[in-house]
Write a structure and sequence with these properties.
Layout lengths: L2 H8 L6 H52 L15 E2 L4 H12 L2 E3 L4 E3 L3 H4 L32 E4 L7 E2 L2 H14 L2 H6 L1 H4 L1 E2 L3 E5 L12 E2 L11
Antiparallel strand pairs: 1-4, 2-3, 4-7, 5-6, 7-8
Length: 230
């Protein structure tokens, strides 16, 4: 390289302060436009993942029902349509795991143990119907949705008619949660249809009002068709 070329390259101007500010402004504008869409996509991805997990659990609950001729006993304690909340106490959570895994979950040591007592009642042959993966658990060793929320609800068909009529309390929780994410008038118009699950098992999470997680409404069954989202 000649000396003249070296001097020419050394003297090449860089970005001026004004040019840098223009670039930063453009990036800011683009982030304002694209950012919300990215967050929507991420939220949608988590909803899809959560629903996929729920459907997997339902498949195994069907296998359980086929094998034992009934659903796990702890899901049959209340009237049909009254949802069981897995995070309500550790017993319900661990009974669900016992029913599908055939082992007792120790959330402290994060290990599986043999069933005994009330947990053996949920799966008397200790048969494994579902092998739970690490991704299905939250940070504290409890089952969680993709946002980390633990408030997972389950309802099952108890009279064998192939569908579930939600109780007034469970139904109202769902209606109010849907109104927070959809046009309230549309939700209210579809109320009667939304209060019936045309399946033998329903699993869902509702948007988190506490603000502790970003959990959104996710249902194992299709509610979108009643809300004009399809």
């Amino acid at each position: 390289m000649s000396k003249s070329q070296s001097k020419k390259n050394t003297g090449s101007p860089g970005f001026t302060l004004i040019e840098l500010l223009v670039v930063i402004s453009i990036i800011g504008i683009l982030m304002g436009i694209i950012g919300p869409k990215v967050f929507d996509l991420l939220g949608g991805s988590k909803a899809t993942k959560t629903q996929a997990v729920f459907k997997s659990w339902i498949t195994q609950l069907y296998q359980y029902n086929e094998h034992y001729k009934y659903f796990p006993p702890f899901l049959l304690q209340d009237e049909e349509g009254e949802a069981v909340l897995l995070s309500e106490d550790d017993a319900n959570h661990d009974k669900f795991l016992a029913a599908l895994k055939g082992k007792k979950w120790n959330s402290t040591s994060l290990t599986w143990e043999s069933l005994s007592g009330e947990f053996l009642d949920e799966n008397r042959k200790s048969r494994e119907f579902h092998s739970f993966s690490e991704d299905e658990f939250g940070e504290e060793g409890f089952l969680a949705d993709a946002w980390g929320g633990r408030d997972i609800y389950i309802v099952v068909d108890q009279d064998g008619d192939g569908m579930i009529e939600l109780s007034s309390s469970t139904g109202e929780k769902i209606i109010q949660a849907l109104k927070r994410e959809n046009d309230p008038d549309i939700v209210e118009e579809a109320r009667d249809k939304l209060l019936v699950i045309r399946d033998k098992v329903g699993i869902f999470v509702l948007n988190d009002l506490s603000g502790e997680t970003d959990t959104q409404n996710v249902f194992s069954w299709n509610v979108s068709k009643y809300l004009g989202d399809e």
